[in-house]
Amino acid sequence: MPEAPADFRSDTVTLPTPEMREAMARAEVGDDVFGDDPTVKELEARAAALVGKEAAIFVPSGCMANLIAIMAQAPAGTEMLVAENSHVHTAESAAYARVAQVTKWPLKVDRFGRLDPQEIARNVRKGYGLPGGNSHHATTSLLCLENTNNFCGGTVQAPADLRRAVDAARAQGPWIKVHLDGARLFNAAVALGVPAREIAAVADSVSFCLSKGLSAPVGSLICGTKADIDQAHALRKMLGGGMRQAGVLAACGLISISEPMIARLAEDHANCRRLAEGLAELPGVTADLETVQTNILFFGCQGPKGGAAWLVKALEAEGVRCLALGERVRMVTHRGVTRAHVDEALRAAGRLLK
Length: 354
Ligand SMILES: Cc1ncc(COP(=O)(O)O)c(C=O)c1O
Prior knowledge:
The chain is an alpha/beta fold and 354 residues long.
């Protein structure tokens, strides 16, 4: 049995690497609200270059990144088109509504998280003030995409899929902006074997998290046009998130976006596939293996003593931590999960489900 218990709840449980701890101690820092922190500046510049945008801003979390990106691009009283199962729509405390004062039009996704271009086109609305506008409607101002799609099981959309969605929206509303929630953008890039900037190219803004598979303790980046990122500084302040000597965190982020840290995500993907294939053979487990494309696995369970909630509790007693989300179990692989942990989890599940 591996030494540490296996924690498959999320890739957010990853601990900073020893190299990150050293980089924190060494980091050159300053007051970032005055623009004086060289390490934050370096992280922002490298992040922007990596995803092919003009500028970037370092923020505390993926949720704040999405909220700021929405506020920078969707005026209050307008509407965003968003996948019905997206994190922005289902798991961010309705901040788009409560704080940004933006309403949403949720769209169906297929099992890979792809939006239907025709449904997008049908649901672009022109409100009061636009030529041909209808005062009953809020104007569609933003299309929000997510890649990888968390709740589809870390599924990946190719740049061409994203392009089809964006083209469908812009054919009806050329003014529509596009935000890509790329919390796990680099998982998508590694799975597709393309540079992250190729995926981000369809979007005006893209956010990604340092604190998931990339293992930093804290932080996300929003990357976009210089004008939007300038505005994002004011929005971050307004939301309470201007950080001072944040270079100690940015130093970890620089390691997160280094080539070896990005490349190692492939290991997490291989571990997830092994886990999925092993679990799919057990009685009572239903898993769609085609959707296992990166580091997230969702599966259904009908065990001898219950469903997802029972299995999660029973696995916990065996030293394997995972989450029940509704009727499904979620298991996520990451730097803290080894192949030995995967095999141990499979043995434990095998004992419980026999
Ligand atoms: C797709 C997606 N977007 C955004 C977030 C929010 O990130 P954070 O937890 O850093 O706020 C998550 C978190 O799991 C996510 O999965």
